[in-house]
Specification:
Pfam families: Glyco_hydro_20b (PF02838). It catalyses: Hydrolysis of terminal non-reducing N-acetyl-D-hexosamine residues in N-acetyl-beta-D-hexosaminides. GO terms for molecular function: beta-N-acetylhexosaminidase activity. This is beta-N-acetylhexosaminidase. Its EC number is 3.2.1.52. By secondary structure, the protein is an alpha/beta fold. The chain has 4 domains: 99 residues, no CATH class; 145 residues, Chitobiase, domain 2 (2-Layer Sandwich); 305 residues, Glycosidases (TIM Barrel, Alpha-Beta Barrel); 208 residues. Helices cover 18% and strands 30% of the residues. It has 12 helices and 38 strands. The protein is globular, with a radius of gyration of 29 Å.
Amino acid sequence: MKVVKGSKVYQVTLPVTPPSMENRFLIKNASSIKIYSPFCTLIISDETGENSINVADFRSVWWDKKNFYIYAIKKPLYPVKKYHFKYKFVIKPPQVSINEIQLPEVVFQTEKDVDVNKKVIIPYPQEIEFKKGHFLINGKTSIVILDEEYLSLANILKEEINSLFDLELKIQKTQIKDLKNMILLATLDFLPQDLLDDFHSEKLKPEGYYLLVNNDQIIIAGQDKRGIFYGIQTLLQLIEKDKDKITVPSVEIKDWPALRIRGMCITAPTEAKLNILKKYIKALAKYKANTVVLYYKPNHLFDYIKRKKALEDLKELSLFAKKYFIEVIPGLSAKLNTKLFENIVENKNVIQSFYCPSLSESYKVMFSLYQDLIDACHPKYFLIGHDEIKDLAKCPRCRDKEPYKLLLKDIIKIHNWLAKRGITTLMWGDMLLNRKDWPNDITAHSNAYGYPSNTHKALSFLPKDIVILDWQYKPRKNYPTFKYFKDKDFKVIGVSWYDGKNNYYLAQSAYKYGALGILGSDWGFSHTLSFGANSILCLEYAWSPGVPELEDLSYDPITTFAKQIKPPLLDYSSKKTFIPIDLSPYANESTIDEKFGDGKGWFDLGSLFDLRNLPIGEQKFAGINFYIASPENGQRNCIIFGKNTYQPLPEEIKGIKINKKVKALFFLHTMMSPLASVWHKTIGVYKINYADGTFVDVKLVENFNITDFRSSGIFRENPWTFNKGFEILYGAECGWEGISLCGEKINLQVCKWKNPFPEKIVKSIDMRAIGKKPVKIALLGISTLN
């Protein structure tokens, strides 16, 4: 990149590997810049003669990692005055050859690289001190309880250790005599004085715990049962396995939550099955969440059969969550599908609308749905929605009434109905904030464009026992709306989304202003099983606001959370033998693509997006052996098939020979589509042919067990706007990640098929693309588990 400052010309190189945070500002106050790239040569100049052009590399920031910015600064600017700006953009053919581009080395950290003193514990404890030594867990180790009421907690610990390490521990109910080789679970009020002295007899806050590990014993002492449970979750994260030894480092921990309410708001199950939502809730509990809001839409409950299933699921999820000390709160959106509820909506000319608050029939419908949800889980709280209400005072009955009076009367009516049933009202807070009073990066919808006027006036007249859910998704260092609601004598819970900075600073504001807590929000997982639609950082920072610093995080939030929910690709304890299949005899394309648009090569996208940095030969991807032939000298080394695409590809490939019995098959594959999406859609099928003439179809489902090889969100349809984690799928394991020549992150997935008939000989595999969607599917390797 050439830079002109006055009469001087400088050259700046933008490396593929981003610079440090402090060095992210590459160019300041230039009059002209010339950017050389494989795409083109771009010249930008300030035609007014000022030095206003700046360039900053923001890829060093972990929550971005893809953008650098070219921007102009003009200051000061004063209201009413007129200003003239003129910038010239010239685009010329590229002057950089492919061979000049430096590819970064992608290094993956293994568990052995992690220092015990930097071990990942989520959320990080308030006080922790590692000591010398360790406790060895073996077949003779017992879990000790002092009373039957702790048995359920002991069983949780027993089940987790058995699941993780294939080791079954015994549970003993006994008085404390000799704790050697034992794990003691107890509340502080049950511990004898000599053990209390070890903990300095300090009273813990509710949900707090002590964890003491030395060479002889482990003691988890909770302020209450929740405290014991959270101590168990910390212990499970500390356990290590090295070969045949299972150990816990010696440590002393004193820990408690800073905020009372910690959890997640999630859309009620639609695509996600009940067992997946149970895994989701269990994963939240692992990170010490105590609240889950299941948010329903009225149209999901309109059909009787769907409603019956939804209510059964809610009941089962609620009971399941209680086992893990999580309270499930039901919620119902106040926005209705206009076709399904046309007789009670405010505005019939939109897809969804607020119900008419002047119509008694509206409350018959809404209260009936409320009652069904309440009967299913008997909650203490109920979320009534009331966010983003654009259609208030639109129908003939409401048109002449003041919006805030309509809203006030409506909320009080619902509040009183719930209060009679002993339930506290929760509601979103955006309609109670005046757009004119807050900065643009604060969510406030009273008097906002397209919204009714002055709905914020209702706040002063609302019952003070209503709890406000103040959702603020934009990252900023302070969220003063928490203080605003508190000063009006309302309890408030902050609600964040997937952005790391948003979660980090929102938790600090919640703690600073005395909010009840924070909830993350996940409006995508139930529909897409996408792990990037939320952030477990809300749980990290709700427990201990501001610790650790964002820059000091030693884990990736998306990958870490997904690992708790996804089915494992491999059995933890078993030794496997994988035999790769050489696909060279069947290959029809190459992982190298020298020219865009010539109908050949890697998806015919040209060298900027091919896989020239993919390791070749026999390689391990996601722990599975695969063989990738060399693409040198134009050799074809992969299979690409597709449908409705300009590249001349077969829709079907037949006859890849296996000819043996297998327990499982593993596929190293990917796809490409101009219409890639986070929605689940079947795009192809692998047909597994047995020697006896029978077969089994393995569906290839986009965003489940296969995804576009370009990892960036800019290549996908995604109404939830989250921009990370697309390479992490529920039904496959990311086997390889790399960087393309144009700097984009790329991925390949490993998908497992478990053979339901392992006694049969698998003869061959056929594959075909299906559906109307333009799609190309690439198979790079097959491996068998014998």
